[in-house]
Records
---
Amino acid sequence: MGNKMESLDKTDQGLDFFEELKHRFLCFKKQKYLEEPEHFQALANAQSPKFMVIACADSRVCPSNILGFQPGEAFMIRNVANLVPPVENGPSETNAALEFAVNTLEVENILVIGHSSCAGIEALVSMRDDVNSSSFVENWVANGKVAKLRTKAAAGHLSFYQQCKHCEKESINHSLLNLLTYPWIEDRERKGLLSIHGGYYDFLNCTFEKWTIDFKRSSIEKEGPKCLVKNRSFWC
């Protein structure tokens, strides 16, 4: 079995895509699973990831690929535009995953990863606020409305592309603040048992920016929510 794997977009010549997936699975089994039997047996009995990752569903943004997460290292949820709704919005797949990761698995880090050229953010920036939409996408990305308003205030004079780029990062910070609306997240952060981070992957030039919310200086008060960050780093 060779290490080189064919891209699925190169196999559309009357071939079955699943044959390529089968090949990849068997490579994984031979090169990873059978090489680390004790590790995978331990994972079969229990998981204890250090990270909870919230990333976009975009096919170009795979956290396990770009950050090298291995099986057992990160509990993940992916949705359109990597958004975290506030607790008052009620149940969703995202906060269900958060509840399990924080309260049961007791992860030590939550990482929200946004990215360049995000179609979900483009939908958010371009949608009209005065129209009730039947679109599932628009109703979901409306969770980032505060980020959109902050973007319009700070970058409304810029081009649509530049507004979207601004909003891509603004929405990450908005999601970081929304995480603190969940009492069990805020409690563990306050006790020093949990850290909340933002990340931004620019796949146009393959760079990654990472930062951590400054819990003591940030605020989720409705009158003036603010997300202050620390430990910002740029990987290129």
---
Amino acid sequence: MSESEDHGSLLEKINEKIHEYKHSSSSSSDSDDDKKPKKSKKKKLFGRKHPLHHVLGGGKAADLVLWRNKQTSGSILAGVTVIWLLFEGIGYHLLTFLCHSLIVFLTVWFVWSNAASFVNRSPPKFPEVILSEVQCLKIAHIMRKEINEAFYTLRNVASGKDLKTYLMMVAVLWFISIIGSCFSFLTLSYTIFLMAYTLPMLYEKYEDQVDVVGEKALIEIKKQYKVIDAKLLSKIPMLSEKKRH
């Protein structure tokens, strides 16, 4: 009996040691998991939640801007660049360019349509371009909404109700006037097109790096705005009264 009791107590001690080892190993693994840094979601620029292709509309225009088809996007960029060089470099006039383009276009189609019967080929089919009433009403509705919002903002600024918006508009117009004095309207339009046509593609390619830099820049801008607000804008009576109300 004593030998069986000693044997049973030995087995119990072994089981206790095993349970203690399992408990210590599980607690250590839990502590290691707690020490591991949790992966945080990367913040997108301007709080964007959807992919850039979806933000740009997700259609053919987004495919062109993001250079999904490099040959098509490159051809459009080359064509716009040639037109800009014609106007800015050679000094071609817009009305002359339109008339010459229409002359070439009409001549090619006229000759092709008449020569097709002599070479036993079908004449070219000119595409029918018809604007539907729904499309025209949709465009008119969008333009009407934007124009009304612009007039509403101008009325508020001119009536002296919003000094902050007035100062912002003056600063923006002054900045645009400086740029306009340095470049011609055509060059400025081409530069805006070039930026709008290439920057989204570059942003999508280097999205993570740009988001980090952009977030830091936004934080710094907010800090500078708080400094300006505390030192300058808060001392203006009109703005200080609005903040109190």
---
Amino acid sequence: MSAATEKIGDGTRCILAPTGNRVRILEEQPRRNEMMKKPPEKPQRVAARSPAKPSAAAAAVIMRCDVSADRSSDSSTSASSSGTGSIVKSAKTASSRRKENGNGVVRAAEGVLALSLSSAVPLPVKRCDWITPTSEPLYTSFHDEEWGVPVHDDVKLLELLVYSQALAELSWPLILSKRAVFRKVFNDFVPTSVANLDDKRLLSVRLLSEPKVRAIVDNAKQLLKIQQEFGSFSNYCWRFVNHKPIKSGFRYARQVPGKTPKSDLMSRDLMQRGFRCVGPTVVYSFMQVAGLVNDHLVTCYRYNQCSHDLDKVPTAEEEDA
């Protein structure tokens, strides 16, 4: 392969194209030479156009908009600053008051809290020592509503006498839980009905031992005789305390006796009249539950209530009337 050269002007140049040996006339070099000989042209500056002046009406509108915008921004700034200032001021005032009050604020809050708690949570009621938080509700209700309340109804007195006799074999909570059974078996303790009960039918129930069941029937028969003699079983019982209940005024449960001279006297008289299973301890339990004696402890809330009820006890003349 040969290389071809061509003399162009003052310079030569080899031409070797990929398609073969060809001689090409190049015009690039003369153009470059001419451009190098000419002086460089200075760039022309383009004059910036000044904005057209707005008309008088347009200028007035623009000025009004600017003034209103300035006023709104000033008002919002002042409002925000005033709001922030008031909040800061109130916070500072509250903190200063707290600092001035010191423990007074805490004490006042504690007082309000204690007042709210005292109004929401009732205080526990103080009862006799033998009534505890674990006592059965039935037993607690009996203490609050019946035990120690003066009784003058013969039917109710016979019922309470039977329960006092049953205490030798059963406890008060157990007796109260079987109260409905007692009333059904003994015909609601109506003296005439109890006196005519069949011993065999009563023994089949097995509510109490045989001696206790037979004693209840026999005592009901003797109670009918007392009604004929004294007008009522109530008159007979209340005459042992002069128709006025005895206020024991004990403070502690250990001070409450199992029997007293009054119960001894009443027990002997009952046995002389044919009553059975009526020892001094049984009789004193009967006197307590029937309200002949107020043995609620003085610390029990029922002591004053029963004492108030004792003032309403009718006399023998009032009962006969």
---
Amino acid sequence: MAKSAKKGSLKAALSSHQARLKKKQDAAHAAQHADRAKAASAAQGKGKAKAAAASSAPPTVPFQPTDRILLIGEGNFSFARALVSSPPPSLEFLPPSNVTATAYDTEEECCSKYPEAVEIIAELRAKGVQVLFGVDATKLERCPPLKGKKYDRIVWNFPHAGKGITDQDRNILSNQLLILGFLRSAAPLLVSGPTPIIHKARKPKRDPGDDSGDDAGPDEEKMDDVPQRPRGTILITLRNVPPYTLWNLPKLAKNPPPPTSSGQKPNPKYTQLRSFVFHRQFWTGYEHRMTKGERAHGQGKTGEGGEDRTWEFCLQDLD
């Protein structure tokens, strides 16, 4: 009887001890869950604040009113029109005659693909913009009106080989060769001078607990004026999602592959100055149009879900 009582007492004690341990564990788990929820809420709040700050930041305008600008692969010329007909306030005094807008197509092909281009081209010419057709971005030296010219900005928005290749690896290679050819062809047309200086605007003091880094956002950057005219830059805009990210644009510019044949000239090396979000809606009336073969192919739906981003490069100093 005593043994039975002792056994029952021990069982009750163990059961009571386990119950106390379970309560402690439940309390600890609840505290950990509360801490994680609090941390997640704080992170979400910071993320929303950063997103709001980014969305409220003014779009980057990579031009000065004194720039001489060469636009490549203009399609329907709506970006050229936005630049000279509805410019942002900082470009109000940009002379239209400082802008040269080019297209790969002949004028007849261009107006056939993009009926709206007829009116746009007439408007640009009336304002004094130089409009050129049949300009191959990889053979700019073969365009007589460009011979001897120098530009502060050479711009290609959404370059694409437009060959309709379905195999992704071959498609990527086709577009990489296009970009390399353009970077090689455009180099002699860039203004010489000192390397441009990109200034990062001051950011408000961060919360001491914010360990997300202190780099200024890309839309907070601006190019400083320097006493001597800085060297010209190339601006290339792409969707910042696959398959475009697979082209590896920054690497192509900074570390191009060696020539594949003895007669081919090596590609010049560029320095990346910055990259920033490209806001299509900021450029009034601008429409990005894709092409496949001989017909217009819509308004650039490939790569939806990402952002448009512009990379800006200048030539590296020669060793």
